Amino acid sequence: MEKLYQYLPRELVTFVLVTLFSLLIGLSQRRISLKHEGETTLFGTDRTFTFIGILGYLLYILDPVDYRLFMGGGAVLGVLLALNYYVKQTQYRVFGVTTIVIALITYCIAPIVATQPSWFYIMVVVTVLLFTELKHTFTELAQRMKNDEMITLAKFLAISGIILPMLPDEPLIPGIKLTPYSIWLATVVVSGISYLSYLLRRYVFRESGILVSGIIGGLYSSTATISVLARKSRGASAQEAPEYVAAMLLAVSMMFLRFLILIGIFSRETLLTIYPYLLGMSVVSAGTAWYLHLRRKRTNEAGQSEEEEDSRNPLEFKVALIFAGLFVVFTVLTHYTLLYAGTGGLTLLSFVSGFSDITPFILNLLQGTGGVATLVITACSMQAIVSNIAVNMCYALFFAGRGSALRGWILKGFGCVIAVNVCLLLLFYLIK
Fold it and tell me: How far is the C-alpha of 166 from the C-alpha of 143, rounded, in Å?
C-alpha cells in the first residue's frame, strides 16, 4: 500500500478504500437481513453503510486534531441507531444488536484505514464479513455442542494459560533435569494436539468415513484409534476389511506427522536429523493405506462408518495426570539407564517404551534429560516408534478377533510398514 501512495494522493486511496470496505459490509448486511429477517428490519441499505463510512472519513479529516466533529457524528449516529433498535423491538420483535455494532464499526473504518497498517484494517474488514456470514453456522455449532464443552475449553485454557506460567522451573531431583514446568509443558503440548484432533473429529468431520476417522484419530492417539477401528471391524464383511486396515495405517501415518510437530516444538536440532525419516515413513504408511483402499471391492456401504467415532474428551485431568506420571517415570528411568547402562541400556529402554505410550519417553529425551546426544535421541525415537507400531499391530489382531477377515490384511499392511521402518533404522546405524 505504501508503494501505491507514491503514485496516488493518500487522501484518494484512503477514500476509495473506506468506500469499498463500507460497501462490502453493507452488501453483506443486506443479504443476511433479506434472507432471514426481511427488509422492514434493515437499518437502511448497502448504500446507507457506504454513506456511514464516507461520513466518518469526512468528519475525521475535517478535524484531524481534536476529532470533535468525528465524535459528534458518532454520537448522532448512535442516537439514530438507538431509535432504529427501539422501532425494531416494539413493532417487529427483533432484539439483535449486531447490525448496530457493525454500523458503528463501519463508521470507524476511516480512522483505522488512515492510521493503521494495511494488514490490520484488512483483517478488521475480513473479520466483520466472516462473522456476519457465519451467524447460522455458529447457531448450528452451538446446537451440536455437548453441555460441558465450554468447561472443556476452560480446562485447556487453565492448564495452558494459568497453571503452566505459575509452575517453577527448578529441578525436583538433584542431577535430573526434571522440573514442574517441563513436566506440565509436555502435558500441555500433547493435550493441545489431542484437543485439536477432538474438535476436528467432533465438529468438522463428524460424519466422515472410516479413512478420515483414521486420519483425525491418528493426531490424537494412533493406538486408541487402531483399537477402536479393530473392535468396529468385527461386524464388517470381507469386502470392507482392507478399508479398515487402510484407516489404521492412516492413523500410523498421522502419528509420524504428530511426532514431527512435537519434535519441532522441543528440539530443532533433532528435527533436522529425524525429519526425513518421519516424513518418509508417513508417506510409506499413507501409500500402503491407499494401496489397500484401492484393493477393496467397492460396495455402496464401504467406507461408511455408521457409529460415531470415540469422542471422549482428551482433556480429562485423569488423562493429563497419567501422561505427567509416565513422563516422570521415563525421565527417571532414562537418567539412571544412561548412568548405569549407557546408550546400550537406553536402546533397550526405547524398545520397551513401545509397549506403552511412547510420547512421554520421546519428549523427555527432547527436553535434554541426561544430556543425550542428538543422534542418540534420533535413534531411540526411531526404535520406540518401530516397537510401538509392532504393538499396535498386535492390538489390531487382538481386537479384530481370531476369525476376522482383517487378520491377513493387518499382517500384510503393518508388516510392510514395519519392514521399511527396520530397513531405515539399519540404514541409519550404518550411516552413523
Answer: 36
Q: How far apart are CA 74 and CA 54, in angstroms?
A: 13
Query: For residue 10, what are the contacts with CB-CB under 8 A and spacing of at least 6?
Result: none
Decide if pLDDT at 44 tops 70: no
User: Of 140, 161, 192, which residue sits at a domain end?
Assistant: 140
Q: Are residues 339 and 217 in the same domain?
A: yes
Kindly tell me the sign of the dihedral angle through the C-alpha atoms of 199, 119, 157, 134. negative
Residues 117 and 177 in one domain: no
Q: What is the pLDDT of residues 174-226, one digit of tens each?
A: 767 778 888 888 778 777 777 777 777 777 766 567 788 788 878 777 887 88
- How many Cβ atoms are within 10 Å of 1's Cβ, its own excluded? 14
Residue 423, CA distances (Å) to 24, 230, 353, 382, 414 in order? 58, 27, 20, 11, 14
Q: Total structural domains in the chain? A: 2
For residues 111 and 105, give the distance between their C-alpha atoms in angstroms, rounded to a whole number. Answer: 11
